[in-house]
Amino acid sequence: MKKTMISLVAAGALVLSAAPLQADAVGNGPNYGGNETINTSILHTYSEMASYLQKQEAKQKDMELEVIGQSVKGRDLYLVKYMKNPENPTILFLTQQHGNEQLTTEGALEFIKHLGTGKMKGVTDNVNILIVPMLNPDGAMGDVDFSLDDYVASGDRHLTRYNALGVDLNRDHVTKIQPETQALHNQVMQKYDIDYMIDLHHQGARSERDGELVSGSILYPTTPNVDPDVLEGSKKLGAVVFDAVDSTGWGHLGKYVGGTAETISRNGIAVEYGISTLLFEMRGMSDHEYEPYVLGQKSNGYLIKQTITTLDATVRAIADGSIESKDTSFWDTLAEQRTRQSEEDE
Ligand SMILES: [Zn+2]
């Protein structure tokens, strides 16, 4: 346990220097070999996402689309809002702080479409939903001031964790120096009375729990400065997600092993705003220079579905109040995921 924390800190330090983890011998990993190709062309580009959102806004009377700022390279950053009654509880879903973790955004886009259909009827009467998809569009589009030549995916573009300046946005939640982080804090966190937040990410492809590879992992805030009630809310949010995902045939979740730094949104946002946060790490990244982090596209279907299931289950549990009575004791027995080979994300 202690050892893991230390390695996390080391990973964080590397990340800040914009020198991603050194790849082991290339060709050494199990990676996507046998799990077919990784082609980034099937993912929404930033502009495809923008037109998708504009089209949904035109179709859905309850949906509002807002620009909350611009990325380093000048791309508009979007906030999707369903806010019928400010008195209702509010949940925020955040995707792609790390540009190479795109299936979370794909799932969020699909969920936004669902919100405009009959099967979600009435849900938004009782819960406010905020979605910030693709907070790091420059990284997602590979439009960055450093080389991605050794990244492994094929397709129209490479995707990277960092923003255009090589900064990890999920280490910028205390000083808030980057324009993407500033937009999130100034135009979303400070403006709305948010109760819950799920920060959606992807981790490496080779974590396991009880000997079986996980479809993802979850974690509540682990800083000692978090208010106990906020922490309890996070654990309840995690219980909703765990029950919805782990009970499916394809879902298998472990407990993420994460650090206490408040530069990370899971910790920092819980402390600064009193919001119950949950980190959700899906399996496998869309692109990376380190092969074992990347997952072939045959897994896309269930990972997108995992995001949709997560968003759907949590908004319903908040809307009908059932989240309040969730039993959080599963956290005491949920095993921390183990890594078949060193990998960290968050
Ligand atoms: Zn991430």
Any overview of this molecule?
The chain has a single domain (2-17, 43-339), classed as Aminopeptidase. It is globular. The chain is built from nine helices and eleven strands. Strands 1-2-4-3-5-10-8-9 form an eight-stranded mixed sheet, with helices on both faces. It has 346 residues and is α/β, with parallel strands linked by helices. The longest helix is centred in the last third of the chain and has 20 residues, at 300-319. The chain has helices at residues 2-16, 46-59, 103-115, 137-140, 179-189, 228-246, 265-273, 300-319, 330-333, and strands at residues 64-70, 76-82, 90-95, 128-132, 196-203, 207-209, 212-213, 216-219, 253-255, 276-283, 338-339. Residues 1-35 have low confidence and may be disordered. The structure holds zinc ion.
